[in-house]
Batch of 2 targets.
Target 1
Amino acid sequence: MGTALVTGATAGLGLEFAWQLATARHHLVLVARDAERLEEVAQRIRVVAGVDVEVLPADLSVREDLERVAQRLAETGAQDARPVGLLVNNAGFATGQRFVDGDIAVEEQALDVMVRAVLVLSRAAAGQMTRRGRGAILNVGSVAALTAGGTYAAAKAWVRSFTEGLAVELRGTGVTATVVAPGFTHTEFHARAELDMSQLPEAAWLDASDVVAEALADVRRGAVLSTPSGRYKAAAALLRLAPRRAVRAVGRYR
């Protein structure tokens, strides 16, 4: 039984990661902005799964909050706190705006949460894990990373490239790095960004439970790239092979 830290843990894939890890008898450290909702989730998991759940309210776009989470990840277990053996960098959001005429403060916040936080937390976790000779880092990316879909796609492209480079650096340490790249998934993600997805066919959607189960299975086998579902594996292969001019012509990823 190990300890996993999950960011963005009160909704969507983060919540599903928390429940599946708890069901697998992992202790948890849950990170999210809403302290009240975070404690509600933690208490339900404690009662149902019978595991220890720490709560760490933090806004990952605020550097002081981010540093507190990094400090928790750096703990090696010499004190009372259990060392984190699995980091799930899940927190993120779609800006729901065009870049050129959008609010630049929103873009900067998204960059802080989906890029800078992944960088800082991965570094804190990798340092602690390599000293102990075991552990795993799972970064939540997106198939959007292979598209020309604005700043969200750009952030996820960074996550993908960063994770692959990290995996190379971690070879032989006993620590692994995996990036999961789901497609459209039934969560609160699109509604929070006020994106109208009503025209997307049901066949395009994935279930959060399936995405998380496949991602965790890939972490256990040490895979670097995880693309849930056969149809999105095929879509990713097509996007990698297609001329970039054709990819740009498709337009914005939603």
Note: Residues 121 and 238 are 32 Å apart (CA to CA).
Target 2
Amino acid sequence: MVIDANNNGIELEANETDEVNIFGSFRSNYETKLSQDDYISINKVGDTLYIEILSPPPSKNRMNHHFVNYDATISIPGNRKVEARTYLHEVNLDLAKLKADWYIANADIALLSDGEDANVKVTTDQPYDETKSTEGEDLKKKTYGDGTHSLYFQHVNSIKAVP
């Protein structure tokens, strides 16, 4: 699966089903009607599913300041290889659900849980110091279990271990 959120600040999570679920809200200070095709594009090419969160539609009246905001979560089967090529606001992962390799290009925060039952190697080249667990261990390069699967962040502002 390949995800492109067009910098809309989407949240990403893993699930234990075979379904992709996308849910959330659309906010605007001007009245507009949208169909699903106005805010999301889903295409399958061969074995790859491409999910693109489209940019919000432009304002019809350019004289006033208008805002459009998506607040969405994409829940993806943890047993599928994932490539998120865009900025994600939050990556909230139960590491035990990851049964494939995941690549995240850019995220503000990564919340990682259930490392005891995981089999994942987490790596990032991120230089920030906000990648320490409560016990002080470095989460930038940490292996859980045998590390059979990989979770690689090209850029992440903060990685936190959560209960």
Note: The helical segments are 36-39.
